[in-house]
Design brief:
Elements (H helix, E strand, L loop, with lengths): L11 E3 L10 H4 L2 E3 L7 E4 L5 E4 L13 E3 L20 E4 L4 E5 L4 E5 L3 E4 L1 H8 L3 H12 L6 H15 L6 E2 L15 H13 L3 E2 L4 H13 L1 E5 L1 H11 L5 E2 L9 E6 L7 E8 L3 E9 L9 H10 L3 E10 L3 E2 L5 H13 L3 E7 L2 H9 L6 E7 L23 E4 L1 E7 L5 E7 L2 E3 L12 E2 L12
Parallel strand pairs: 10-11, 12-14, 12-20, 21-25
Antiparallel strand pairs: 1-7, 2-5, 3-4, 3-8, 6-9, 6-10, 7-8, 13-18, 14-15, 15-16, 16-17, 19-20, 21-24, 22-23
This protein binds zinc ion (2 copies).
């Protein structure tokens, strides 16, 4: 729950934590503003009515809070409850913290609850019990005068949180960071950091401990794929009309893997991992953290990389045997399309060595040299496609053009009695160094055949 109260002349005092009562259910429910999606502060006014307030901000709001439960707001705009940073990373827990605002003829109780969103810097300050440093940071960032009554109130609240801080912290998974590209050659390090996060002590609401361990094990034993920007675009395009597709383990480029797209695909998701298990394929999607536009401070970036890494898990699904993926499955549909595009060799998959420093680190710990498979578009599909638009291939091309794919129901199985939707792959035609025509779509009526699979 957000704690920053707006500067005011009411002198608030904090109840000692021991005296605080457990807040009623309404207060424990996190509320957000429907209009600006910010998490709201809750309090009781002088008449005992439950009220909601926008969190403090440098500029004033152009609307009144319109409170709805935060779970009902898509893309809730969290901020650090200590310094208002827009990219909190952890949720910290404390004893109940309340502030009593006493006016001349009225008073109100501001209830700040027991959970606090914190940016990486404030997380580390709070965990190191540096309450005064927390307040200094908040006052500086909010450009508040200090000492003032408001700054003193914040100081008291911070002391209350730090004094009753519970052990541990929970990773926030609903914060959207600006995208930062990760190079293919750094992927082994990204994977290792993710493994450490999954097997580490930080709590995650999304995954159970056992699941985390299994996912970490499959990451370590899996293959690494970096999908370049053109191939990412292609997979996104193919995913938009993906019909119900059932995938088996042999459709995957590897039984276990981590795949990183050059750009976020759906809902900020930029990576996915999968593990083939007895129950089916366990898929986790990830968003990036630490985008350079989000953290201006180099030390904070370094702390984030050490404490969290590059990727945070944001959704999780077990795809049971026979379960279909369709175009409505968001990032999962893009993952399925990417797998199919890799399997059907629309792209080329080339091995690249990891960064030298990463290879050295692997050598030191006697691990085999890590390898990354870079997935990119072929400049031209050499064989296997026939065109029905006569003459087109002979025209000189200053640009590469998308030849769009299409879905085809294909017989397979014993006696070819079963039907399966197969994507006939899109590809790019034109000189490899030519720019890609942005909006060109040419439909090919016959494409490379996928060998029917015997089952
Ligand atoms: Zn609002
Ligand atoms: Zn902060």
């Amino acid at each position: 729950m957000s704690h920053s109260i707006p500067p005011s002349d009411d002198p608030p005092t904090r109840h000692p934590p021991d005296a605080a009562v457990c807040p009623p259910a309404d207060l424990r429910r996190e509320m957000a503003c429907r209009i600006c999606r910010r998490i709201l502060n809750t309090y009781f006014d002088a008449t005992g009515r439950l009220r909601h307030l926008h969190p403090a901000a440098r500029t004033s709001y152009d609307h009144d809070p319109d409170p709805v439960p935060s779970a009902e707001v898509a893309g809730v705009a969290r901020s650090c409850d200590f310094c208002s940073d827009r990219y909190p990373v952890f949720r910290l827990d404390s004893g109940p913290v309340q502030a009593l605002a006493l006016g001349e003829d009225d008073s109100s109780v501001h209830d700040f609850g027991t959970t606090w969103s914190a940016c990486i810097t404030c997380t580390l300050l709070a965990q190191a019990s540096k309450s005064e440093a927390l307040t200094q940071r908040a006052v500086t960032r909010m450009e508040w005068a200090d000492p003032t009554i408001a700054a003193e109130a914040v100081r008291a609240i911070h002391a209350g949180v730090v004094g009753t801080l519970r052990p541990g912290r929970t990773l926030l998974t609903d914060v959207h960071w600006p995208h930062t590209p990760v190079t293919a050659t750094a992927l082994p390090k990204v994977r290792d950091r993710l493994t450490a996060l999954l097997t580490g002590p930080d709590r995650m609401d999304l995954l159970k401990v056992r699941q985390r361990r299994d996912i970490a094990a499959s990451l370590q034993g899996g293959r690494l794929f970096a999908v370049d920007d053109e191939f990412t675009d292609l997979a996104c395009t193919a995913a938009t009309d993906l019909p119900a597709t059932v995938l088996d383990v042999e459709d995957l480029p590897a039984p276990h893997g981590l795949l990183l797209w050059a750009n976020p695909v759906v809902g900020g998701v930029c990576a996915a991992s999968w593990a083939s298990t007895d129950q089916g394929i366990r898929i986790v999607s990830y968003r990036g953290v630490g985008g350079s536009a989000g953290v201006a401070d180099g030390l904070a970036v370094q702390a984030l990389r050490e404490q969290v890494g590059w990727l945070i898990p944001v959704s999780h699904r077990l795809l049971v045997h026979g379960e279909a993926i369709t175009c409505v499955d968001g990032a999962l549909a893009v993952l399925a399309a990417t797998w199919l595009l890799i399997a059907q060799r629309t792209g080329e998959t080339v091995s690249v060595a990891a960064d030298r420093s990463i290879r050295k680190a692997y050598e030191r710990t006697r691990r085999p040299a890590p390898e990354v498979r870079l997935v990119r578009i072929r400049g031209r599909q050499a064989t296997g496609s026939r065109e029905t638009r006569r003459g087109e291939a002979r025209e000189p091309q200053a640009q590469r053009r998308w030849i769009s794919g299409y879905w085809r129901s294909q017989p397979h199985g014993p006696g070819r009695a079963l039907r399966k939707d197969v994507y006939v792959i899109a590809y790019l035609r034109g000189p490899a160094d030519a720019p890609i025509a942005a909006s060109t779509t040419v439909r090919v009526l016959a494409g490379e055949r996928r060998r029917p699979k015997l089952q």
